[in-house]
Amino acid sequence: MKASPSPPYTTASERRRSVGFIESGAEAWACFLVTFRATEATWHGYLSFRPSHSEHRADEVRTTDIFVEASEGAIHEKARGLGRPLLHGLLDSALHTSGRHDGSPTHLRGQFRTLLNANAVEIAGDWIDDPLDVTPHELDRLRSLYESYRIDQVCHFISIVDPDDFGEAVDRILEGESIDFRAKDRVQFARIVVDHIEAHLPLPDFETWARDFLAHPEVYRLYTHTLHREGRLP
Which of 108, 54, 46 is nearest to 78 (CA)? Predict the structure, then answer.
């Protein structure tokens, strides 16, 4: 099955159905089945993959039209028979055809977001479902949540930067060094980039943040839930 890059536009008659998430390397991709009527007698369908860190169609990669059937229902029936190994193969093919290999600006941004989310949870725990009965005297707990908040702010900033601009910024920060997210030095180099970005963000100091957090804990819970659990920007 040959894949093709995402078209610059989608037709008004296209219908999208979520198929779930596929893991590729260190990144998750949302998978969609897209169907449309090609002629009076035929329906076409293809799979489109969007990185979990993005909400934009422009970041998607897609297969060619791999389904050609007499009805949309027939395409849905065939799509249900696709196993994860085949979906992985189609995603890899779409990435290869579109030129979005590991290290490309879009994928690099997603790698950073995945790493930062994992780091934030490691520092503060997965506190979204906790009662969050934190008092002003629990300084260690508050400092952990504050560090997690700062990481989330960097993650949020990275997510809204243009992928090409982010790739160029990483090159400048690392002075030409490349990050291999499969290598042991990935955390070291990623930390350099994150520290550089964090130093330029207008983040509140601990005391200011703690007062606001204790006054509005549910606002912070919703923000973290949206960023981590739903994989979208608050």
Answer: 46
Using one digit for the tens of pLDDT, what is the confidence trace for 101-118?
545 555 677 777 777 877
- Please give the Cα distance from 107 to 105 (Å, whole number): 6
What is the pTM (predicted TM-score) of this model?
A: 0.54
Instruction: Give the pair of three-digit tokens for residue 190.
Output: 């990623």
Produce one character per residue of 4-25: b if its CB has 16 or more CB atoms within 10 Å, e if not: eebeeeeeeeeeeeebeebebe
Q: Give the count of beta carbons closer than 10 Å to the beta carbon of residue 85.
A: 8
Tokens 């520092």 sit at which residue?
123
What is d(CA 148, CA 63) in angstroms, rounded to the nearest whole number?
Answer: 37
Is 117 within 8 Å of 226 (Cβ atoms)?
A: no
Cα–Cα distance between 21 and 27 in angstroms, integer? Answer: 10
Q: Place 8 in a pLDDT band, splitting at 50, 70 and 90.
A: very low
Structure tokens at 103: 């290290």
Q: How many CB atoms lie within 10 A of CB 192?
A: 16
**Cα 48–chain centre separation:** 15
What residue has token string 């990050």?
179
Backbone angles phi, psi at 33, to 5 degrees: -95, 120
Please give the structure tokens belonging to residue 216.
Answer: 């509005």
